[in-house]
Model the fold of this input.
Amino acid sequence: DGENCVYSEAFVDFSNPLTSSVTLSDIGDGAHIFAGSLFVGENYATLAAAEAAGIERGGDGPILTIRPGVTVALQNSEDFIAIMRGSRIEAQGTQDAPITFTSEDDLRGLVTPEQVQTWGGMIINGFGFTNSCAYAAGFNIDDYSAADLELEPAADCSILQEGAEGARENHYGGTVPNDNSGTLSYVVVKHAGFEVLEGNELNGITFGAVGSGTTLENLQVYANKDDGVEFFGGSADLTNYVGLYVQDDSIDLDQGYHGTITNALVIQGDGSLDNPFASGQHCVESDGSGGSRKATNIANGYTTKATITNLTCILSAKGPGFSGQGSPSAGINAEEGHRIQLENAIVTTAYASDATVDSDGLAIPVANIDFTNYCFQLEDSEDLEQAGNELLSLTNSIFACHDGSANKALDSDITLTGTGAFAGDTGKEFLQKQGNVVVFAAEGLSDNGTTPPNGDGSLAGGLTILDGFYSLAIADMSANADTDLTDDLTGTFIGGVNASDDWTADWTYGLHDGNRGQALWFE
Done:
């Protein structure tokens, strides 16, 4: 139209997917605007149907290529982008020219800084592993270069993707652990997360069984209704991720995901009564295996086993019910037998006052108040046993929260079971014995937000760990009146990002002056 390229439903929509490769080029200040959903490739409801069409791995179908600096916008809140199994997306931006996915309303200045649900979000599907499928025993989930991933006799692996219904249905899963669904690099997803049905919402980016051949680096999800990124199985690694103002879980790991997430910065909204729709649930929600296959997957070693290294998690300390989420704000949550591996992390609520009321302004029960905004939680009996048996690893990190660790009912601390070295330990003891610095309310961390993590060490708790969202050097950190944490932590820095090597600079939205709609709530 002289400024933008506008594509009607007759060009592409969920019922009219792209069947040929397409490149979206840089058109200057304009955007590529889609009136319908942007579906790339045909959806096949079974592996047999896909194979019959010659679609067996990424690259067999059409490829969507997006050049650096391009903005892609959707017109309608219920529309979304979906890359089908066998297709690929090659969205390779640069630090100086990132690729942005957003809504037309955002382009027109009609969206407030933390508004969500202005369009659907992104779905990328692959032929990789998901433990929702019935695989034969014997596959080495620790070695995704192995070629012996087989289904049980007569079994299919085509899982219906969440957040899509009716004609918008799409499927993921298969037997190609090293599948390649393309590249996302220097990509920002803004103001997404449409609620398709009550409790069924689209994430910022959903990865369905995306294989280890996929490249994911320098991604941001900004202001999203549901999760920031969610991995349903697969083994794609993610390097340099920012989740800002995500209303549910900023990182959600499910169905046997077995990759590595390196350098992640999560900042939840403030979660106050004045701003109840700008908070989050968990920084990391990690599910091992749900449903009827849980026992089989645990026995086969097919549960989620993600490695997360260098994470900064800044919680909002909200009460239950904010942003439509029943749980309060929290840090790391593992359930359903997930064998999480976490190292070099900072998890803290110390910028915010402790939550005392829910989203209706009603007081949180006294029995729950000390366990509301926790740093660490194990929900299920399998998790308590695995932690007690030394199968979960959380090391070289700082956990500084008003409410430290909590059970599923949020009315007491956890107690580990099993027969290993940590059996019988509380959550705090478990974290301390693995070489972490633990600062909970009992150590003097203020209940009212007066012990900021960028303090000078003179306040109660003596907490000095962050400068804004930047990690301080370990040599400059202090906690619990200990002004030299080099004896407690290894390396030079922990956390997601430090000022001397700021990988968030120039391309992210909402963090830095000159490219955001408001200051961060704790600045």
